[in-house]
Amino acid sequence: MARLVMKFGGTSVADLERIYNVARHVQREHAAGHEVAVVVSAMAGKTNELVGWVNAMPTVTGSNASIFDAREYDAIVASGEQVTSGLLAIALQSMGVDARSWQGWQIPVRTNNAHGAARIEEIDGSDIVERMGRGQVAVVAGFQGVGPDNRIATLGRGGSDTSAVALAAGVKADRCDIYTDVDGVYTTDPRVAPSAQRLDRISFEEMLEMASLGAKVLQVRSVEMAMIHGVRMFVRSSFDDPATIDSSDGANPPGTLICDEDEILEQQTVTGIAYAKDEAQISLRRVADKPGVAAAVFGPLSQAHVNVDMIVQNVSEDGSVTDMTFTVPEGDLEKALKTLDAARDDIGYEVAQSDPGMVKVSVVGIGMRSHAGVAATAFAALANKGINIRAITTSEIKISILIDADYAELAVRTLHSVYGLDKE
Ligand code: ADP
Ligand code: ASP
Ligand code: MG
Question: How far is CA 410 from CA 164, 193, 218, 401, in A?
């Protein structure tokens, strides 16, 4: 028999019927003799609503809209998971399953002090392990822990995935099943490309790239943590009828295993296409071409907590001035422009042009390490469709291309087909 962590996302617990369905999934594993701990998200839309309340409060009080106490933000937004953990425990009890809810601070899930985007530092799983051994199911509120200040800390959006992997590592689970509204990780977002195919397996490294380049099926940190602790993550659907699923050891339900590279027998050159919306481009024209200028641009931006992503600097024609283009999240554009304006004398640029509404489309595959020409294929395919490329960055296993948002879906589908990823 196995020790399992089962994680259910927002759409899977969106209403009472779905929570009941989740309880049936849990009961099925429990009845098969497995030791089970469950991690739940808030009901779909709940976290957005809570964040919306926090953001709206200053307009009521008339205070500065962008500044609020991050510890109170956490106290508010963590509440969605408290509700679902209690409801699922009640549903399980009604089925005769011994279950109880756990909030992050009760376990405790210890985090650092970065309220709103805290990192899990340690989970003491001993109490839960002991209770699982007696057949009790732990229903854990995801997305939350407790900081060194003894206050609730949340893990950043999508953080319940990370709660699940951390708990799996903390209780030494055999597997961490991520139940969601798709039946696995696909070659691209199936909502954008209906021709996307489910991957049976994907390496940790590729999944890390896919997630950090926009495939929000898993939170980036959850994959990072699974890789470090060797947790076997399996992405699967919560919408299958629990009565039809075989819960015995060795059963092979549909889904995607995130695993080591050497567990994948047939490695494709390109594994998937990811995209990230809401990027903005900034171009500084006629920047002095001299040592220290990049530091003068990116130092103040980093101090203002603006995350700069793609950077392109032209070679200047006459050695005196050059152009510098980079991207920032669209939501940070205003802050970035203000910061650059304040540092204008230090940097010495003529004009700052900006364009919101950009999308970064990325091609990911470990096979790129050993295959040439992958980038050229992408450029030719996009040119054929008349899609203009604004910036490019590459690494060993990915190519990212910045384009206008209007062409995002066309670009994703075009690249998906050109690398032979479309299902037959
Ligand atoms: P949950 O609420 O269960 O955490 P999410 O909404 O966070 O679920 O993640 C699941 C969604 O991720 C899917 O509905 C799908 O639209 C999206 N997604 C993006 N890229 C991919 C991909 N490559 N494979 C599968 N799903 C993807
Ligand atoms: N409820 C949180 C969110 O919406 C965490 C999660 O769902 O993983 O971001
Ligand atoms: Mg999610």
Answer: 35, 9, 24, 13
Is the Cβ–Cβ distance between 202 and 210 less than 8 Å? yes
Ligand 1 mean position, distance from CA 36 (Å): 24
CATH 3.30.2130.10 at 272-418, yes or no: yes
Query: 182 CB less than 6 Å from ligand 1?
Result: yes
- Substitution site in 7, 155, 182, 236 for ligand 1 pocket (most atoms within 8 Å of beta carbon): 182
Residues with CB under 5 A from ligand 3 (ion): 9, 158
The pLDDT tens digits for 64-100 are 766 789 999 999 999 999 999 999 999 999 999 999 9
Q: Per the confidence metrics, is the pTM higher than 0.70?
A: yes
- Output the CA 215–ligand 1 centroid distance in Å: 7
For residue 161, CA distances in Å to 28, 177, 320, 376 come to 21, 10, 49, 35
SS3 405: helix
Residue 142 token pair: 């995801």
Residue in 207, 219, 220, 202 with CA at minimum distance from that of residue 257 = 202
Q: What is the pLDDT of residues 243-294, one digit of tens each?
A: 999 888 888 889 999 999 999 988 889 999 999 999 999 999 999 888 899 9
C-beta of residue 164 within 8 angstroms of C-beta of residue 120? no
Tell how far the Cα of 205 is from the centroid of ligand 2, in angstroms.
23
Distance from the alpha carbon of residue 71 to the mean position of ligand 1, in angstroms: 28
Q: How far is the CA of 80 from the centre of ligand 2 (A)?
A: 9
- Using CA positions, which residue lies closest to atom 9 of ligand 2? 157
Q: Where are the domains of the chain?
A: 3-261, 272-418
Residue 255 Cβ inside 6 Å of ligand 1? The answer reads no
The CATH number assigned to the domain with range 3-261 reads 3.40.1160.10
